[in-house]
Amino acid sequence: MKRIGVLTSGGDSPGMNAAIRAAVRGAVNHGMEIYGIERGYEGLIAGEISEMNSRSVSGSIHRGGTILKTARSKTFMTDKGFRMALNMLESFQIEGLIVIGGNGSLRGAAKLMEAGINVIGLPGTIDNDLGFSDYTIGFDTAVNTVLSAIGNVRDTSESHDRTIIIEVMGAKCGDIAVYAGITGGAEVILIPEREVDMNEVCRVLIENRNKGKMSSIILKAEGVHISTAELESTIRERTGLDVKMVILGYLQRGGSPTAKDRMIASRLGYEAVRLLHADIAGKAVGIVGGKVVSYELEAALEMKPEGITSLSDLADILAT
Ligand code: F6P
């Protein structure tokens, strides 16, 4: 392949720029032309496409967000929008496309593949909810951001003898909560993969108080069925504890990527180009056991993320 494109789609995640940078510089290194497509599938449909070179990605590796911008495109889901996307790829003579994004974005890539487009999907989301890769680009940074928030919140929680619930992102996945909860020493971690037992949560908090532990941090993943406000009032009513909540929201999506995210993104971005240069497409590229791997895209999207319940069992033990 001689001319390829790259886009980022769905929620931005720290490290996306490192992946774009590796794709662009990898393409230049292979003597290929590479076009940047802005605002994901939305920009593809609108023809927001321009050629990139090594200088286009200068000064981007340390930046959060995505220099190509991103979007969740509803138009692309329509027949008309999808056809427009295909036409645009044809008119720019783009032979291969690298899509960096989460589940929905990679499903869009699979649809393009079915329509005959050479695509490579890279896991770009803070959620770490893609089964074909041990880590998704942006997850490590998000965990570290939450970890730093736990530190700040703990100062207040200890000063006021308060129980503070911190709600974190992750869509239907509890990985951010479990990783940040274990490393930040949260007293309780609530994730969608495990049934929430309110009696048990209250029992742990009361037992902690009786042991002289006057403050606690509850880390709650957003995918847990009970709302954070409801959780706060229920715990207050049942235990009489001084309970407050904080929702971290978009604080977790931005920020300079960690070394780990930059490294993963650089390796995956380069691999995507290497495959397209070798005329290999229809793959999802991830990292498993520290090695860069690729799977058939559709099969990759059916792979279930490894259960994190054993890690959350560990969290329970360490929190006692
Ligand atoms: O997928 C990344 C993510 O940040 C999820 O953790 C969260 O549920 C969702 O995106 C929020 O999406 P939006 O950008 O539409 O608010």
Explain what the structure shows:
The strands form 2 sheets. The protein has a 7-stranded mixed sheet, sandwiched between helices. Strands 7-8-6-9 form a 4-stranded parallel sheet, sandwiched between helices. Strand 1, helix 1 and strand 2 form a beta-alpha-beta unit. The chain folds into 2 domains: 182 residues, Rossmann fold (3-Layer(aba) Sandwich), CATH 3.40.50.450; 114 residues, Phosphofructokinase domain (Rossmann fold, 3-Layer(aba) Sandwich), CATH 3.40.50. It is built from 11 helices and 11 strands. Helix 1 runs parallel beside helix 9, helix 2 packs across helix 3 and helix 5 crosses helix 6. 6-O-phosphono-beta-D-fructofuranose (F6P) binds next to loops.
Task: Offer a quick outline of the entry.
With 320 residues, the protein is of the alpha/beta class. The protein has helices at 16-29, 40-46, 79-91, 103-114, 139-159, 175-184, 198-210, 228-239, 259-277, 297-302, 309-318, and strands spanning 3-8, 33-37, 49-52, 96-101, 118-123, 163-168, 188-190, 216-221, 243-247, 283-288, 291-296.
| Strand arrangement across the biggest beta sheet | 3-2-1-4-5-10-11
Share in helix: 40-55%
Annotated CATH topology of the largest domain: Rossmann fold
**Shape type:** elongated
Total tally of structural domains: 2
Structural class: alpha/beta
In whole angstroms, how far apart are the ends? 57 Å
CATH class of the largest domain: Alpha Beta
* Multimerization state: single chain
Measured by DSSP, the beta-strand proportion falls in 15-25%
The whole-angstrom Rg is 21 Å
